[in-house]
Amino acid sequence: MRTNRFILAVASSVLLFSCVSTKKFKESEAKYTQLSGAYLEMQGKYRELQDQIKDLENQLARSKGQNSELNTRKQALEAQIEDLNKQIEFLKQNNTTVLSQLKDLSVVTGAQAESIKKSLENIGAKDIYIRDLQGSIARKDSLNMALVMNLKGAIGNLNDEDINIKVDKGVVYVDISDKLLFKSASYEVTDRAKEVLGKVAKVLNGQPEIEFIVEGHTDSLPIKTSVIQDNWDLSVRRATTVVRILQETYGIDPKRMTAAGRSQYIPLKDNATIEGRAANRRTRIVIQPMLDQFFKLLETKPQ
What we know:
This protein is an alpha+beta fold. The chain is built from seven helices and five strands; from the N terminus they run ααββααβαβαβα.
């Protein structure tokens, strides 16, 4: 909508500029015609006065007795000629100025009109690009929502505290609580783990172009056993356990998966409470956006 308003504003400016330039051009053209007519009229008077002076000079040559009167008339005519010369010079200067203005107006009008035309073409192309990009984003959001609905449909009536599926900033997150997947303080899976992961795997196998990250998250309580060194170690081992099950049991292509341990450092809730720590102990599946499609769009964007 903003782009359309901008295009309308630019188009209105072009029309206004065109009207103003045309008006100025016509006014200058009329003034030039008027000055040219006055200039020709002055030249005519100038020639008449010169003829009269020649007649007086001839009369002076023929008549000695009327020298005083003829000389007076001659001086008066010469004064008129001098005045006419000044007027003619003024008209010539004005003609030159107006003619330059006419040339400048025509050049500026053409150049600016071409520049504005190109600007409008660029704006139009960018507007199409923006609409295409918005359409792609809308399609991507629709696909994400469809994926969320498929995941929720596949998983069924599990408690929202145990499994949560959401879209945030164009990324789909599936959070599964540790009590559904793992035994306490361990990366050994529960009896229900394969059931839950199998439902998720069914949806992911139906979208073979999707890549995803499996993240292990812990609470802030320190852990150290003969097998587990700390929370970093536990979170990584839990992530790799889930990835192995998805690959070996449910046939998901390993190239689509990444295993990552996040330890205690991205909590959902306050670790000071029992409820908060329970929410923070989770396995998160992050379904990555397909950025290559957007890079292709960016590669062909208008200049």
